[in-house]
Amino acid sequence: MTLPDGWDAEEQARVKRLATKLRTDHATQIIAVRAPGRVNLIGEHTDYSGLPVLPVAIDRSTIVVAAANTTGEIEVTNADPAWPSRRFAIERQIPPYETGDWADYVKAAIQGVIDRFPTHALRGASIVVDGRVPPAAGLSSSSALTVSIAMAFMASNQLELDPLEAATMVARSERYVGTHGGGMDQAASIFGRRDHALFIEFDPLRVRAIKMPANAALVVADSRQIADKSGTVRAEYNRRVVECSLAARILGRALKLDGATILGDVVRAYPAWNAVELVEKLAATSPAQLGANLKDAANILGVTQNALDADLLGQGPTRIALDPTRPLEVLKRARHVLSETERVIHAATVLEAGRLDEMGTLMDASHQSLADDFECSTQRLDEIVECARRGGALGARLTGAGFGGSIVALCEVSNAAAVIESIDRGYYAKQYPGAAPENWRAVLHAGAGASVIDMRATA
Questions:
Q1: Backbone angles phi, psi at 237, to 5 degrees
Q2: Which listed residue (47, 59, 130, 185) is catalytic?
Q3: Above pLDDT 90, what percent of the chain?
Q4: Which domains does the chain show, CATH number per domain?
Q5: Angle 375-380-386 (CA atoms, 0-180°, nearest 5)?
Q6: CA 440, CA 427: separation in Å to the nearest integer?
Q7: Is omega for the bond preceding 135 within 30 degrees of 0, making it cis?
């Protein structure tokens, strides 16, 4: 069998094992999908503001094998017994499980397809999942799962979408779990290209591949501090979505822009914009902090408190809940997002030119901004970043949403072992004395994006 780009020997063996399990159901067609995780080089917490990012798809994947059935149900089994099997009916609005259930990401993907094809009579499917993207590590295991499930479910029902539309659909579907994220992770998983980073822009979604310099290595290390966006981290993540949206609305009103709801709306209205001027404009228009009840924000915007509440926080099970005792940090969040956007644009240029020292400097500045202005770093992340730098990394930063998870360090290929040794000695040996950290850090490579295989049961 000829496989699409990206399927290595280990993944081929995985898909054959999973397909064998489904053949016992006498299926006439087997669909297999491979979807990678991602590591973001720079551009953190900018995508849900409609602003660019610079990730790579990684050589760690989730594989899904699916066989259509006539039961009208989804039956999903995980190769890892720690994640229990689930069965649920295909219906117009699928009710979620309790918060934190892994299969809610499966439901999210299925719901996304249902919403996109509301008049299509959809068949059920028996699905087996084998995920090798480390969970809750900031490497987007959740999006690798939702991308692979959505693509397998569509293929099982003879449905197709343009990749740009598929990425947009899956990004929207993940809001089912209550996280109001952007579209970076899904686009990176679908559009990944071997040995390339991806400069991704939004509204509309656009993706440009940038060749990774041959002498560049990416060391990714897991802090082992869980960053689960479907659980405890979700409230902090969503809070920052609200803070950024408030900043955009206030800036939009000050600049007489109609309908600005995200900072990307402001940036696109001013081609010659710069972060310093926009932050100064915001500071002249609004206090740095606003009350969580949105009363002061509503007064600034000239709208009712109830209308702003409904618009910003939403309704129903995915409504954002704000801690009423904490003020909303409007100025600091906007300063990070706008300065980070400038760094992303510059990073695309210097990476393409092979100027790794400059790329490293930008990554260092990104981490500092995430720690100071976005307040999503942690002591552990700061420590592991510092260890990477002491080992000779050109730059290092948290990657993913933060609040735990992983860091990414850029270094010369010849220096990757020294960076890893510094992390092992300075971080893992202190945090986990006596443990073997081999599975917690690695040199990861930019890999291919998601792909679908149509396997015949008799193959």
A1: -60, -50
A2: 185
A3: 84
A4: 9-213+446-456 (3.30.230.10)
A5: 95
A6: 11
A7: no
Note if the bond before 317 is cis, omega within 30 degrees.
no
Nearest-Å Rg of the Cα atoms of the chain is 22
The string of pLDDT tens digits covering residues 152-177 is 999 999 999 999 999 999 999 999 98
* Measured distance CA(34)–CA(152) in Å, rounded: 9
Is a pLDDT exceeding 70 seen at residue 28? no
Residue 206 CA to residue 421 CA, distance in Å, equals 38
Task: Name the least confident of 43-47, 232-236, 311-315, 418-422.
Answer: 232-236
Beta bridge partners of 208: 199
| Whether the model pTM is above 0.85 | yes
Phi, psi of 150 (to 5 degrees): -60, -45
What is the CB-side half-sphere exposure of residue 347 using CA atoms within 13 A?
30
- Residues 264 and 238 sit within 8 Å (Cβ to Cβ): no
Q: Are 302 and 253 in contact (CB under 8 A)?
A: yes
> Across the strands, what pairs with 128?
65, 77
**Interval 59-94: pLDDT, tens:** 999 999 999 998 999 999 999 999 999 999 999 999
Contact 395, 363 (CB under 8 A): yes
Query: Is 311 a known active-site residue?
Result: no
Report DSSP letters for 59-125, one per residue. EEEEEEEEEEESSSEEEEEESSTTS--EEEE--SSPPP-STT-TTHHHHHHHHHHHHHSTTS---EE
Residue 217, H or E segment: strand 216-222
Residues 189/35, Cβ–Cβ less than 8 Å: yes
